[in-house]
Amino acid sequence: MWHIVAIGLWRIAMKPRKKYIFICNGKDCKKNDNKSFSSSVKHAIDKAPLKGNFKLVKTKCLDCCKSGPVAVYNNHLVKKGDTDKLIQFLTSDLL
Questions:
Q1: Which residues pair with 24 in a beta bridge?
Q2: Is 6 helix (H, G, I), strand (E, B) or coil?
Q3: Per-residue pLDDT reduced to its tens digit, 9-51
Q4: Cis before residue 69, ω within 30 degrees of 0?
Q5: How far is CA 59 from its chain centroid?
Q6: In what helix (H) or strand (E) does residue 71 lie, and over which residues does it extend?
Q7: Can you name the residues that pair with 78 across neighbouring β-strands?
């Protein structure tokens, strides 16, 4: 009986995990204004419906240099710094 109660308490105490967004921080992506792309994504995930659900991770080169700046979320590769497309993926994942 105690074992079942302990498992129930463990499930209550667990916080939901954040989902990761990987943004390339390679040389070519930096040339293509990676800084403004990552800051706009950061501001978007700090607002109401997305807040607290995602974590931004800056990575080394993701080998998509001609399409930069790029971001990866789940199995989606977002090219050319398309913030709107990335936010669309994030909001659809919350539903």
A1: 59
A2: helix
A3: 555 556 667 889 999 999 998 899 899 999 999 999 898 888 8
A4: yes
A5: 12
A6: strand 71-73
A7: 71
- Give the chain's length: 95
Ramachandran area for residue 74 (φ above 0: left; ψ -120 to 50: alpha; else beta): left
**Is-contact 29 41, C-beta < 8 A?**
no
> Whole-angstrom Cα distance, residue 23 to residue 14?
27
Number of Cβ within 10 Å of residue 74's Cβ equals: 11
- Give the burial class of 66: count Cβ atoms within 10 A of its Cβ; 0-12 exposed, 13-18 middle, 19 or more buried: exposed
At residue 73, the 3 state secondary structure works out as strand
Beta-strand runs (E) in the chain:
19-24, 54-59, 71-73, 76-78
